[in-house]
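Schema walk-through. Below, the input block comes first and the output block second. Nothing else is stored per chain. Lengths vary across the set, and this one has 299 residues.
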Amino acid sequence: MRGLVFDIKRFAIHDGDGIRTTVFFKGCPLRCVWCQNPEGLQFNKKLWYFSNRCLHCHQCIQVCPQQALKKREELTKDILIDYNNCDNCGICTEVCPTNALSFDSKWYSLDELVAEIIKDKDFFDISGGGVTASGGDPVFQHEFVTAFLLKCKEQGVQTTLESSMYASIMVVEKFLPIVDKFIVDLKIFDSESHKRATGQRNDIIKQNIEFLIAANVDLLIRIPLIPNYTANEKNIREIYSYIHRLSPKVPIELLNFNNLARNKYEMMNLSYPFPLESKPFTKIEMERFNSIINGVSLL
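--- output ---
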């Protein structure tokens, strides 16, 4: 059994309690317009080119058996990847002296990935932290991720699952005995609006949230604040009212918008979905949004 991982972030403090190591798994059932990790959407490895690292030695072009690499133009001497011909053989990454060519993800066995996590166990024990499975969406690789989290728990590591919860009840049930904390995104309350922005209706997500609340798990609901999509009083109020009716004890957290993913979109030759001037919400704007889930609207 192997899992495809596109990042491991150590000393994370926003993905659950204490100091954490967050593992980002490839694959996601949603296609959010604002995705912050577009490299995690597809369940496959992809070759990336970092022009700022490139020495323009062009050894990669010479060794590529599929002739999938070429110079972009004479002025820049940067590399252009023909993904239609690239078969991910990795020969170019082996000869590149500066890792200007590298894959966006790596396959791990269960033992390999658990070994990476155990390196940080002292920090977990001191801070009350642990491992967080994120993505993409870890439910996409649920067979591997459940086995991975079980092995972590057997090693005494606290576990958190960060997910949109777009999965069958049978999949969600698998996580109940091995996850200490669930962090679930509920992005848009209206199901049709949710479909337009993410590619899927949210009925399944709501059913799973209700299931988790009924199971009395440790649950945190998050709303990413996205301009023109989620960041409005009506949406926040509807989500707050819905969760509050189910259980007043379940906390809701608002995540400020950020534009840090812009470079990823450029690297992947994708159009960034927001204007260049898009910025995170100000402190005053965040206070106004938070006032909704605190019971008093200042908007």
